[in-house]
Design goal:
By secondary structure, the chain is mainly beta. The protein contains two helices and ten strands.
Length: about 150
């Protein structure tokens, strides 16, 4: 896959914005049921899995969704990316993910004895990111117990 390039603003300023990112693969095929590793200082922390849907407004384009699965098996809530900025895709293409560590989960008892579950994002962290091959991704997808409904 060719690396993505930030749009060249000198070509046509009327059609592009400074934060527009040109995708090397406009369909984001590698992101559909893709899985990559998340490491800190070379130590595996978890995996990032993705699927690609389609956003229809303001124009048709791919719509990647991501889920982080930590090494202990816990899954974070899904998050999305879209253009023209493609902030997550841009980071992944650069081999990093600037996100958060594992969420901190808390249980609170309310006045009527019910338990309320909440979570707070873990500390900010920059992960080293690398895609697995498509065969390894398919195997890891099953090992992690991922379902399309996770996204």
């Amino acid at each position: 896959m060719k690396p993505c390039k930030i749009a060249d603003m000198s070509r046509d300023r009327s059609k592009r914005r400074d934060d527009e990112y040109v995708l090397a693969d406009p369909q984001l095929r590698a992101y559909d049921h893709g899985v990559g590793t998340l490491k800190v200082d070379g130590v595996l922390q978890g995996h990032l899995a993705s699927v690609v849907g389609e956003i229809k407004f303001p124009s048709k384009s791919p719509w990647p969704w991501f889920v982080i699965v930590w090494t202990d098996g816990t899954k974070e809530p899904a998050f999305e990316d879209y253009g023209p900025g493609w902030h997550t895709v841009r980071e992944l293409e650069a081999g990093v993910l600037d996100h958060y560590g594992p969420s901190i989960r808390r249980d609170h008892r309310c006045l009527f004895g019910r338990t309320i579950h909440s979570s707070q994002a873990g500390p900010a962290r920059v992960f080293e990111f690398a895609w697995l091959s498509s065969d390894d991704a398919a195997t890891k997808w099953r090992e992690l117990g991922l379902e399309d409904s996770d996204f």
